[in-house]
Amino acid sequence: MQELRPVHNLVGAGKTFGFPKLSVEAHTLEQILKSLMKKPASADELQLNRVLQQILELKKISADKESKVANDITQTIANEDAFFSNLHPSNLIFVVDDDIEAAQELALQLRYYGYEVEVFNHLDKFRTAIKDKPHAIVLMETEFPEDKMGGIHVMEEIQRELTQPAKVIFISVHDTMDYRLGAVRAGSVAYFTKPFNPVELIGQLDLVTASQIQESFRILIVDDNPTVLSYHAAILEQAGMAVKAVTESRNLIEILSDFNPDLILMDLYMPGCNGIELAKVIRQMDSFVSTPIVYLSSENDFNTQFEAMSLCGDDFLVRPIDPGHLVSAVTSRAMRARSLRSLMVHDGLTTLLNHTALKEELVREVVRSIRLDTPMSFALVDIDDFTKINNRYGHAAGIV
Fold first, then answer.
1. Domains in the chain: boundaries
2. pLDDT tens-digit map of 344-357
3. Under CATH, which number does the domain 218-344 receive?
4. 3-state secondary structure of 385
5. What is the spatial distance between Cα 207 and Cα 390, in angstroms, rounded to a whole number?
6. pLDDT tens-digit map of 85-103
7. Closest to 95 measured CA to CA, from 182, 201, 206, 178
């Protein structure tokens, strides 16, 4: 059925770019050709005329839509610039707390990690500052002298005034449903109860801000349709992600090992090897058991989606999909996966790879070095009496 791939690709492209009539006519032609290929005898004149009429219908639709498709793609990506710009990392932190000493101590620890920090002990001054610098990440105390939920109430008001919601992490002595629900409604991305581990807060900030020490999300796209694949790859690349595009599944195992994706975006229907089969192959590789697999297909039947997700998949996106929705869905999934993996493979205090993860990474690099015939070095460094640094300046300073 290799000869039918161009027609099959046209079916998917029509749905991806929002032209259902083109997709329907292409699907009709695909079914006609499949029927003819199954018959041992050559096609008669009536059958050939039917094929010709279907091709002419496709040409007519394509002529009407060709320029519109190009314009729509260009305009869609251009319209997403404002959305994508909000994904760029911010290194500015606003610490808002009426406890001057506690706020300054937290600011000192954050600066150890390379963050730029401004401290506000009054809500009024903070209101003015966040409007001038809405990209700042806010560390907000929930309770203030004039209002026990003052931080939450202020953030609710500010979020309504901003074009894009501010990223805010609440810090509180209260661990009740009222406070946590209020924080969520005020746009919180995290909630820490006192006393908390500063290293855990830094880890959360690294995830929220996608700081300079965190590389771009690595997204592997598997789709047999080059046009659709290139379109989705362009959207994710413009959002700052590293994308690897694959149209053939034969070399997938080698690509997986080299690229080590944070998320796999996969078409459900592909000739030779469908998405579910490919997902099963991936799930049998220990290194990628927990890697999110998101199906991207024009299939909108709920039962089919449920079946696909129950068989090795994590999410299902239906084409055509809005670029902003695609970026948002991929980002949230990849961020959650990276966060969970970080908890599993990194030491909680130093954030270095733990023993098991270090050995896995070493094996991966040795295999890569052998395959590419390139040199490799591994150094194990120990610092004598480093405990004195931790005891004098604290662990937060010692692990920088």
1. 2-65, 92-209, 218-344, 355-393
2. 666 666 667 777 77
3. 3.40.50.2300
4. coil
5. 25
6. 444 456 889 999 999 999 9
7. 201
- pLDDT, one tens digit per residue, over 214-232 is 578 999 998 888 888 888 8
How many residues appear in the chain?
400
Residue with token string 């902003």: 324
Which CATH architecture group holds 92-209? 3-Layer(aba) Sandwich (3.40)
Q: Determine the Cα–Cα distance for residues 266 and 224; give it in Å rounded to an integer.
A: 10
pLDDT digits (tens, 9 = 90+) for 42-76: 656 666 666 677 667 666 666 655 555 445 545 54
Alpha helices in the chain, H assignment, sequence order: 5-16, 20-38, 45-79, 81-85, 100-112, 123-132, 150-161, 177-185, 198-209, 226-238, 252-259, 275-283, 302-310, 323-345, 355-372, 387-393, 395-398
Residue type, 383: I
Spatial separation of the C-alpha atoms in residues 152 and 182, rounded to whole Å: 6
Q: 54 Cβ partners below 8 Å, 6+ apart?
A: 25, 28, 29, 32
